[in-house]
Fold this sequence. Notes:
Blueprint: E1 11-16, H1 21-36, E2 45-50, H2 56-70, H3 78-85, E3 88-92, H4 101-107, E4 113-118, H5 125-134, E5 143-146, H6 154-167, E6 173-175, H7 183-194, E7 207-215, H8 224-249, H9 258-270, E8 280-285, H10 294-297, E9 308-314, E10 324-330, E11 337-344, E12 362-368, E13 372-380, E14 389-397, H11 398-402, H12 412-422, H13 431-451, E15 456-458, H14 466-473
Parallel strand pairs: 1-2, 1-4, 2-3, 4-5, 5-6, 7-10, 8-15
Antiparallel strand pairs: 7-11, 8-9, 9-10, 11-12, 12-13, 13-14
Helix pairs in contact: 1-2, 1-12, 5-6, 6-13, 8-9, 8-13, 9-13
Bound molecules: 6-O-phosphono-beta-D-glucopyranose.
Amino acid sequence: MVSRVIPVDAFDLVIFGGTGDLARRKILPGLFRRFAAGQMTDDARVIGASRSEHSDDEYRAIVRDALEEFVTKAELDPQQVDGFLNLVHFVTIDAMGTGGWKKLAKTVRKDVINAFYFSVAPSLFGALAERLHEHGIAHENTRIVVEKPFGRDLESARALNATLAEHFDETQIYRIDHYLGKETVQNLMAVRFANVLFEPLWNAQYVDHIQITVAETVGVGGRGTYYDKSGAMRDMVQNHLMQLLCLIAMEPPSRFSPDSVRDEKLKVIRALEPVPSHHIVRGQYEAKSGEPSYRDDVENPRSLSESFIAMRVHVSNWRWADTPFFIRTGKKLKARQSEIAVVFKDAPHAIFGQKAGTHRNILTIRLQPNEGINLGVTIKEPGPGGMRLVDVPLDMTFADALGPEAEEVRDAYERLIMDVIRGNQTLFMRGDEVEAAWAWTDPIIEGWEQRGEAPKPYEPGTSGPEDAQMLLMRDGRKWREIKE
Ligand code: BG6
């Protein structure tokens, strides 16, 4: 397969929070990889901005360190690293005050694409937006990129949207949900809408239920203060899992354009039913073999926040009437495994008799690790002895099917940043989508807060609390195994 990297136009990307964790871990390594791939050319510039004082050279040293830490050795070609660092600059900025803005205004070139990445606390978004205008830096082609968390409830999300809207048009605002940048998530749309095979079966008549699992092995680590105020519901469900659910459940958009896709996703969110408390299981990991418990990690001995959540969710529309969507996510689980499984119904009439057993087709979309798609098909077991049936996988692991190039864009951030430069908002959340997601999430959280419910303890290295199994077993269904 021939690589088809199309270079993007010249741009200046300013990263507010340029020395922060996200910049070091994701944004800068992602940009470097796109530079190494030839997508970002010598015309581009990356301008780090933060409160700290650094010369360009000192900042380049910080960037070099970040690349050494977060890019694999094999990718760190010294010449390319030097080439990339040549494009890197730094401006000291006081987001709330006046310091540094004049210099930034002079540094940013007006005749190329301008993007400003707000990789800072959301409380600074308003101030940054305001300063960019005050100092004549923003213009109608300026794009801003904002990170999650986008609010912590409907009210704060609305306020944030209103603040940004004072200074920028919706077409200039790129709200990141990095799950949308994952290769398989986009492939989900290709599988659904570029093949005739699945769409006729993609409804309540043929689908028994859908499972969405995002299991992590890591705990909350050093992010305790943030995480304890969020819990898995705000940290993962309101955004990442919700987006996955939308892509699975939405109607085919009329075209693959930002608003066509986002209109359809919005309809799904608006069709979500309120979730009764007996359809929710929350959990918190315990201590194990000397490793801290969740409460130790967040340094809050009485914390009632959840590091695990499983829910039965319903999309109330014609396509999905009475088809449950089971979603779960958690930290310190058995394995890192994210997948969506579409479990089809039994064949309507069993012609092979009882001995053949019951068999179901399951379409599994694996996000990570080993991205790929797998369709479980029932066939005859080879050999004499009658009609014995066996389920075999039609497996399409992308790395096997497409070769090393399937690996080329490995991190979601790489693609998303390039989409910002290209001006393509399809994989970014629109303001009304985020608000609708909070409108659904808020009453669920308020419910367990009012009831003063404590999450169920679970042992690290398992699939979460036992009760999560019951959520499906109650009506004869079963979670797919989280495999080590
Ligand atoms: C982030 C959450 O948005 O996504 C983290 O804040 C979580 O808590 C992370 O660990 C998971 O992302 P990924 O890409 O590793 O699945």
